[in-house]
Amino acid sequence: MYWQKEQECMSRSDLQALQLERLQTTLKRVATNVPFYRNKFNELHLNPDKLNSLDGIRDYPFTLKQDLRDNYPYGLFAVPLRDVVRVHSSSGTTGMATVVGYSRKDIILWSNLVARILCGAGVTPDDVIQIAFGYGLFTGGFGLHYGAERLGASVIPISAGNTKRQIQIMQDFKTTALVCTPSYALKMADVMMDMGINPNGLSLRYGLFGAEPWSEAMRQEINERLGIRATDNYGLSEVMGPGVAGECGECNGLHVNEDHFLIEILDPDTLEPVKPGEVGELVITTLTKEAFPVIRYRTRDLTRRLPEPCPCGRTFTRVSRMMGRSDDMLIIKGVNVFPTQIEAVLFEIEGTEPHYRLIVERENNEDKLTVMVEVVESIFFDEMRKQRAFVDSIRKRMASELGIGVNIQLVEERTLERFNGKGARVIDKRKL
Ligand code: DLL
Fold first, then answer.
1. Residues in a beta bridge with 255
2. Cα–Cα distance between 374 and 372 in angstroms, integer?
3. 36-93 pLDDT, tens per residue?
4. In this structure, are 221 and 73 located in the same domain?
5. Across residues 306-327, what is the average pLDDT?
């Protein structure tokens, strides 16, 4: 099933010609409208008018998350704020937020690309879609919502959380497609069991999961426990949000919406292209976005091209599920967390030592983050009540900085192992 067959199945040569034309337009637009890009291009003596092949993109500079932060909030927008109809932000990063904007045309494009992904996964206008992603600055809720409406499905905008109510509604409203993170889907399966509900008695048929890494084993478990077909979909706010890539019914890799995004897969150290089929970092250039185009955005997500043609007939390149990251970003309960954010909070709190461990676990299909931190003797041996208040204050600061709850465990000075070289402060025990 295709949403836009002509585009999704176009010949590779037509696609490349379209990409080149759009790339030229995008480069010219950012050079004209965004001083950040104009200055960088000038420094490197790059003239977008002279670009005459897709490979020419390799002369252009990368865009990093830090560039978005440095230009906070609107510095990288390519249209006046008057033409921006929506603003989103990368999940959970209050202290280091990155802000992205959409013009009216961008919202239409976004809805279309998400509709493509839903359609590719098998969803039709006859389906009832329960969207259990958070609605807000996170792109998951609104992104999937607009796409599902564009498709013509019946949308239940339930948002995240309150699992029992989710299940009640799923039962009563006869939900046929569930949209959330893969870990939340497993949590739902657990809660269904606790509630004595047999998933086979529900109307559920499809699950569209994304926003965090997961594995083939997890897919099998979800499929079996919920009696559905689970597909993976990928995106990131800096590039658009969901809608960048998604699996078709073959469930064997994600088709990238290449008519709107130019991808490169590079060795994260040398920044040279990897050999075909090898794992590398996904780098994305938007080809049609108006308000917030990005040039060679380093996603830090690791994947590889799947060179074999897909039996579904789509010609867009497929990439494997995301296999990890080339930086230390963690995704906890769907929220992006950098260890440096936690470190920064700890450093501000008197009585803590600069030695900590982050332990990430998955308990009952829910992520749990424990911060073990060394504290000075006087605090460690403080009376219980005082210690509890201390822990509470750290927990509150963490919650407001990270946007998620964490457990704090105080340990005595000099108990955490010291490192000689690169410190391994994060222990991720989740087996995905
Ligand atoms: O997570 C956008 C999204 C929402 C995608 C809903 C799919 C569904 P951010 O909050 O900016 O945006 O986080 C982007 O999440 O760089 C990846 O590391 C990770 N990620 C997103 N989708 C997947 C996936 C949204 N399917 C970051 N598999 C990205 C693995 C994913 N990781």
1. 246, 318
2. 7
3. 999 999 999 999 999 999 999 999 999 999 999 999 999 999 999 999 999 999 855 4
4. yes
5. 95
Q: What is the pLDDT of residue 384?
A: 87
Residues 285 and 398 in one domain: no
29-33, 150-154, 402-406: the lowest-pLDDT one: 402-406
Q: How far apart are CA 130 and CA 116, in angstroms?
A: 17
Task: State the CATH number of the domain containing residue 352.
Answer: 3.30.300.30
Domain that holds residue 339: 330-428
pLDDT digits (tens, 9 = 90+) for 214-242: 989 889 999 999 999 999 999 999 999 99
| Residues 213, 98 share a domain | yes
Six-digit token string for 175: 């939900």
What integer is the mean pLDDT of 101-113? Answer: 98
179, 260: one domain: yes
Instruction: Please tell me the distance from the alpha carbon of residue 354 to that of residue 13, in angstroms, as a whole number.
Output: 55
Distance in Å, CA 199 to ligand 1 centroid = 27
- Average pLDDT over the chain, rounded to whole? 94
Residues paired with 229 in a beta bridge: 206
* Pocket residue to mutate for ligand 1, from 69, 212, 247, 319, most atoms within 8 A of Cβ: 212
Edge-first strand listing for the sheet containing 206-210: 154-156, 128-131, 177-180, 206-210, 229-236, 241-247, 254-256, 318-319, 305-306
Q: CB of 425 within 8 A of CB of 358?
A: yes
* 297 beta partners: 63, 284
In this structure, are 370 and 237 located in the same domain?
no
For residue 234, the CA-to-ligand 1 centroid distance in Å is 5
* Top-confidence residue, 276 or 34: 34
Instruction: CATH number of the domain at 145, please.
Output: 3.40.50.12780
Do 340 and 316 share a domain, yes or no?
A: no
The count of domains in the chain is 2
Query: Which residue puts its alpha carbon closest to atom 30 of ligand 1?
Result: 213
- Do 199 and 268 lie in one domain? The reply is yes
Mutation pick for ligand 1 pocket among 65, 231, 234 (CB with most ligand atoms within 8 Å): 234
- Residues flanking ligand 1, CB < 6 Å: 90-91, 133, 138-140, 210-213, 232-237, 241-242, 299, 301, 322, 325, 331, 336
Cβ(167)–Cβ(175) under 8 Å?
A: no
Query: Among 327, 351, 374, which residue terminates a domain?
Result: 327
Among 261, 293, 327, give the residue marking a domain's end: 327
Instruction: Quote the pLDDT of residue 301.
Output: 96
Distance 296 CA to ligand 1 centre (A): 17
188/79 same-domain check: yes
